[in-house]
Amino acid sequence: VQLVESGGGLAQTGVSLRLSCAVSGGTFRNYDMGWFRQAPGKEREFVGVITWTDALAYADSVGGRFTISRDNAQNTVYLQMNGLKPEDTAVYYCAADPWHRMATMRGSYEFWGQGTQVTVSS
Q1: How far is 112 from 109, CA to CA, in rounded Å?
Q2: How far is CA 22 from CA 18, 65, 77, in A?
Q3: Cβ-contact 10, 89 below 8 angstroms
């Protein structure tokens, strides 16, 4: 199973970005898909998850600003990020969990992308 993120880049405070994660080599519709991020010098942290049944959960730090969606026909999951802040600067990773745990811990995810950098300037 391969996951490839895209859509990162440099943004100013307050603007929006949409990240994509394309999945190949597996049964995408059966996966819970999570988003994580890792800022310099910090642990990788949970951002949000969309389950195989479209249930959603978000970290408190991004709730109300970030939205996850998925397109099973395109084998792609999205992370819409609105109202970006400098503290959102990080490498963003998508991950797949085939065991339907609606997990918030990174150890629960079996497959990972390589990450995409998001930098928010003030």
Answers
A1: 7
A2: 13, 22, 7
A3: no
Place of tokens 């600003």: 65
Question: Which two structure tokens, joined as six digits, stand for 120?
Answer: 């928010």
**pLDDT tens-digit readout, 10-60:** 999 999 999 999 999 999 999 999 999 999 999 999 999 999 999 999 999
> What is the C-alpha radius of gyration for the chain, rounded to an integer number of angstroms?
13
Under a CB-based contact definition with an 8 Å cutoff, are residues 50 and 33 in contact?
yes
Q: 71-111 pLDDT, tens per residue?
A: 999 999 999 999 999 999 999 999 999 999 999 999 999 99
What gap in Å lies between CA 71 and CA 63, rounded to an integer?
21
Residue 42 is classified by DSSP as S
